[in-house]
Design brief:
By secondary structure, the protein is α/β, with parallel strands linked by helices. It folds into three domains: 106 residues, Cobalt-precorrin-4 Transmethylase, domain 1, CATH 3.40.1010.20; 81 residues, 3-Layer(aba) Sandwich (Rossmann fold); 95 residues, 4-hydroxy-3-methylbut-2-enyl diphosphate reductase, catalytic domain (Cobalt-precorrin-4 Transmethylase, domain 1, 3-Layer(aba) Sandwich). The protein contains ten helices and twelve strands. The strands form three sheets. It has a five-stranded parallel sheet with strand order 10-9-11-1-12, with helices on both faces. A four-stranded parallel sheet has the order 3-2-4-5, with helices on both faces. α8 packs parallel to α9. The longest helix is centred in the N-terminal third of the chain and has 17 residues.
């Protein structure tokens, strides 16, 4: 008998649900093809499902035909990307997560007050690139507390910081502490501005690690929040694996294991969790339960142009 404990909460967050709903409603309202700049969310199964229904995912705007409906991903885009879309006459629907848009607004407010902005985030991540491109003036990127010591800024008394929404709360707290220690006059939001879904899923994994022998995280390898969930499990001394689907399960992981914790990143659909359960059931008889945790009831409004489209049946 293998005991499986499901994390609560897990899987889709409100920003991801909104982004996917935007693409689905756009397909119903305007018909395929609908063009999406970058992956709408970082999950291969979600992207492939939408692609099968007529969404075309592109890296750059010049791959989009003139006049075609264009959607910006949940991660947000740089100001220049928005300007290029306008120059090309592309009708744009913005699926940027409202919590990411909040970070953009904070960064612009700090820059407008004459402060250079430090962004805590992962180099190359779509959200980070979009945020840097939304804040006028110099933006410094730091990924670790060690990076803070290497910063060379114009005026150490005129600084502010913002954070990528999907980072580890603990890691971000350490970096912010390093920033405040080196630059006592720095301004910035509280770590509570890190995405609620990121915090809730990380807290759930910490609780899950107390209950099980091994942790599985369902999510794509390019998903920042999914990767961090696996890292937290490993840091707490539990073998932890990031898997995209049931086919990734390896029987040798479960030798001597009596209990498994199962969670999913914020961009992973719950259907994949159920597929993993089916995969585990081929290895042993299961006893499945759900841990106590936060019940999320957050929702975000859809763009005005799609509110008249009925949701999928």
């Amino acid at each position: 008998m293998l005991r499986v404990v499901l994390a609560q909460p897990r899987g889709f967050c409100a920003g991801v649900e909104r982004a996917i709903e935007i693409v689905e409603r756009a397909l119903r309202k305007y018909g395929p093809p609908i063009y999406v700049r970058h992956e709408i969310v970082h999950n291969r199964h979600v992207v492939e499902s939408l692609r099968a229904r007529g969404a075309v995912f592109v890296d750059e705007l010049d791959e989009i035909p003139p006049g075609a409906i264009t959607i910006f991903s949940a991660h947000g885009v740089a100001q220049r990307v928005e300007e290029l879309a306008a120059e090309r006459g592309l009708p744009v629907i913005d699926a940027t997560c409202p919590l990411v848009a909040k970070v953009h607004a904070e960064g612009r407010r700090y820059a407008a007050s004459g402060r250079e902005v430090i962004l805590v985030g992962h180099a190359g991540h779509a959200e980070v690139e979009g945020t840097i491109g939304r804040i006028p003036g110099k933006v410094y990127l730091v990924q670790t507390a060690e990076d803070v010591a290497k910063l060379e800024v114009a005026d150490p008394t005129k600084l502010a910081y913002v954070t990528q929404t999907t980072l580890s709360v603990d890691d971000t707290r350490q970096i912010i502490a390093a920033l405040k220690a080196r630059f006592p006059d720095i301004k910035g939001p509280d770590v509570r501005d890190i995405c609620y879904a990121t915090q809730n899923r990380q807290t759930a994994v910490r609780e899950l690690a107390k209950l099980v022998d091994l942790i599985l995280v369902v999510g794509s390898r390019n998903s920042s929040n999914s990767s961090r969930l696996r890292e937290i499990g490993a840091e707490l001394g539990k073998p932890s694996y990031l898997i995209e689907e049931a086919a990734d399960l390896k029987p040798e992981w479960f030798v001597g294991v009596r209990s498994v914790g199962l969670t999913a990143g914020a961009s992973a659909p719950d259907a994949l969790v159920h597929e993993v359960l089916d995969g585990l059931a081929k290895l042993d008889e299961l006893e499945v339960s759900t841990m106590q945790g936060v019940a999320e009831n957050v929702s975000f409004r859809l763009p005005q142009e799609l509110r008249d489209v009925a949701p999928a049946a």
